[in-house]
Design brief:
Blueprint lengths: L19 H34 L6 H5 L3 H11 L13 H16 L1 E4 L6 E5 L3 E3 L3 H26 L11
Antiparallel strand pairs: 1-2, 2-3
Helix pairs in contact: 1-3, 1-4, 1-5, 3-4, 4-5
Length: 169
């Protein structure tokens, strides 16, 4: 027997959050980041296609080797070109919203309460936001829908006639 006083609270009685909560969040975040990267890469490919059809391949690097928001501006401008028909239904606002959420999540810090498992994503300025696994899965679905629109544009250009270059004709 020891002479140490008995503590009223035993650490074994404190409820601890399951590490599975963070693992599920990480998996959902990973799915979203992968979906966003796929969207970003496909956006680059569509811009390259439209510029080639406009005989402006010289602009590809200036238009695509930049951040996502710049590529959206380029795509929005290309909508008004003679080759804009294939991208007319691509929603710039949907992709801007996806990119905004991606930036918060990619640069945010996962802060979990170890006792009850609740968590926030903390971004610049100590702004806390709630992102459940279901929220992340919904963002992944939004990115997939935007990607589908870009795939439609790609198919449109693949199956439409290539414009004749007046200088080569």
């Amino acid at each position: 027997m020891t002479d140490e006083p008995h503590l009223e609270e035993d650490d074994d009685d404190i409820p601890w959050a399951s590490p599975e909560i963070q693992s599920n969040y990480e998996a959902a975040l990973g799915r979203f980041i992968l979906a966003f990267n796929r969207l970003d890469n496909h956006l680059t490919e569509v811009i390259e296609t439209v510029l080639a059809r406009l005989n402006r391949s010289d602009l590809v690097n200036a238009c695509t080797k930049r951040e996502f928001s710049h590529k959206l501006l380029v795509l929005d401008l290309l909508k008004t070109s003679s080759e804009g028909q294939g991208i007319k239904d691509v929603s710039m606002q949907a992709m801007r919203d996806i990119a905004m959420q991606r930036n918060k999540l990619a640069h945010g810090h996962f802060d979990q309460n170890p006792f009850d498992g609740t968590y926030d994503v903390v971004t610049k300025g100590n702004v806390r936001s709630q992102y459940s696994v279901e929220d992340l899965d919904a963002l992944t679905e939004s990115a997939a829908k935007a990607w589908d629109k870009l795939r439609y544009a790609e198919a449109y250009y693949a199956f439409s006639d290539v414009p004749i270059d007046d200088e080569k004709a």
